[in-house]
């Protein structure tokens, strides 16, 4: 080849940029050539114990159970946080709760701190740069109308659903968003205010059904119109969350399905019907992938954004939604943050496997970047590790986290860390660190802090190292009074609340 000064300069600049970024890494041989489509399905407030494949006895989830048998089921995978927005921020940006941008559900008066900024690099931006078509169908919660945080300005070609998470409470909203436009629906919501939350008086169109249909339509169009371009679908379902504005009647679902004749409280029939409805739609989506003959080339992941809730009249104890874990949504004990996590990629991920790999939502960004053959380097400062080796059955090549970290800035504050089988929980923030050995005590009943002060010191140091101060998200400066701490008591004895002493039913 002849000397070409332009080509040489280009090559040199690529070398310099790669070297300068200090993030030079290459996709494993073979991956770039067969980049999978990626479908990430996220349930909202679905507990670790809510699926048959995770031990659920009453709520029927046959499609997800079958899907788990076809892929890998993780036992020790964690959401980004114990409530919606920050958990999704970790999922989208690969940074944990000590230094990601959106570290809480903002109050209605201060929504801008819950909006991603231009400089926040999302999974969708990474994948779009790597050549993927990208879509979000469902709930976003990381950017309000007119801000840089909306999905269409954060890497998604296509968006249909809710921007605001209070809006997403309402399953019969008067509008949803398509791209950046409001699309009117037939539901009537009196006094809905600026963000569409409330309770409909005319319930015509159930948003979950619209979202599921939109996602399937988008996938069909991708295959029909752009055969060679891989796609990324982030299907952020809104069930089985409550419509909190409905108070004790917040479990909105169009029909009770298999539970209509059960001798259960109405809210529990509705809660179960939501989960089975979600399961049926996931079954439809998986069948569509098969019909389109792309199931072998599509990685499908299913998870939940945090633990089960006690909202809208739902009782998380009724069907043991947290399984063997302690606590629920808003707790940093396992029940608030450990979630179902299932991955299927036929022919690549060994079928019928259970993995104890310690993972977190922050792992998604580097994982999908690797699968996409991304050679742009990863965004600076991310905490996640690619779990591609685990997924491909090469656990011996899997890098491990030194520790995992979570923080929660509401209700007296809280933080927690896991290092191997050790789990430290400090909730409320101004309370002694409690220490559990999860290998012996998955229900976090026996506090071993007094017996293992060195482990406590190690985990405390890890939590201090993980936490970076933020203008927007702060731990309380001093212990809160009764009001602050009473929030944890609400979870009650049976759900093994985080803030109180050991209790188990
Ligand atoms: Ca949630
Ligand atoms: Ca961005």
Write the layout of secondary structure elements.
Elements lengths: L4 H17 L15 E7 L18 H9 L1 E3 L2 E2 L5 H10 L29 H7 L3 E7 L18 E5 L12 E4 L2 E4 L22 H19 L5 E6 L29 H26 L6 E7 L29 H4 L3 E4 L8 E3 L3 E2 L3 H8 L16 H4 L12 E5 L5 E6 L2 E5 L7 E4 L15 H14 L15 H8 L16
Parallel strand pairs: 1-8, 1-9, 2-11, 3-12, 4-5, 4-8
Antiparallel strand pairs: 2-10, 5-6, 6-7, 9-10, 13-14, 14-15, 15-16
This protein binds calcium ion (2 copies).
Written overview of the protein:
This protein has 505 residues and is an alpha/beta fold. It has eleven helices and 16 strands. It has helices at residues 5-21, 62-70, 84-93, 123-129, 207-225, 266-291, 334-337, 364-371, 388-391, 453-466, 482-489; strands at residues 37-43, 72-74, 77-78, 133-139, 158-162, 175-178, 181-184, 231-236, 298-304, 341-344, 353-355, 359-360, 404-408, 414-419, 422-426, 434-437. A hairpin with a 7-residue loop joins strand 15 and strand 16. Helix 2 packs across helix 6 and helix 5 runs parallel beside helix 6 (266-291). One calcium ion binds at residues 44-45, 84, 241, 305-306. One calcium ion (CA) is lined by residues 44-45, 84, 241, 305-306.
List its traits.
single chain, 505 residues, alpha/beta, Alkaline Phosphatase, subunit A, Arylsulfatase, C-terminal domain, ten-stranded mixed sheet, four-stranded antiparallel sheet, 11 helices, 15% strand, binds calcium ion
Summarize the entry for a quick read.
25% of the residues lie in helices and 15% in strands. The protein has 505 residues and is of the alpha/beta class.
